[in-house]
């Protein structure tokens, strides 16, 4: 489980986490639905072990509306 924490979204959408290396978005690690407004404790069930850099992509209606790179420490 990846504990992402607080996510703010203007609309209902999906938060997806992808591997990220050398500025390139890689394979999907996991995703979860988010509601419009404040989402205080977002967690994503990862389908593989993750360490290092990932990119979080907030998608609304199938379009990426925000991204943020994160470093996962184990």
The strand order across the widest sheet is 3-2-5-6
Strand content: over 45%
Please work out how many helical segments DSSP would assign: 0
Structural shape: globular
SSE string, helices as H and strands as E: EEEEEE
Query: Structural class, please?
Result: mainly beta
Q: Let me know the largest β-sheet.
A: 4 strands, antiparallel
Q: What radius of gyration results from the CA coordinates?
A: 12 Å
Helix content range: under 10%
Q: Mean of residue pLDDT?
A: 91
Distance between the termini: 11 Å
Briefly say what this structure is:
This protein has strands spanning 2-9, 13-21, 24-34, 37-44, 52-60, 63-72.
Features:
74 residues; single chain; globular; mainly beta; 4-stranded antiparallel β-sheet
Strand-helix topology:
Layout: E1 2-9, E2 13-21, E3 24-34, E4 37-44, E5 52-60, E6 63-72
Antiparallel strand pairs: 1-4, 2-3, 2-5, 5-6
Care to describe what's here?
With 74 residues, this protein is an all-beta fold. The protein contains no helices and six strands. It has strands at residues 2-9, 13-21, 24-34, 37-44, 52-60, 63-72. The strands form two sheets. A four-stranded antiparallel beta sheet has the order 3-2-5-6, with no helix packed on it. The protein has a two-stranded antiparallel ribbon with strand order 1-4. β2 (13-21) and β3 (24-34) form a beta hairpin.
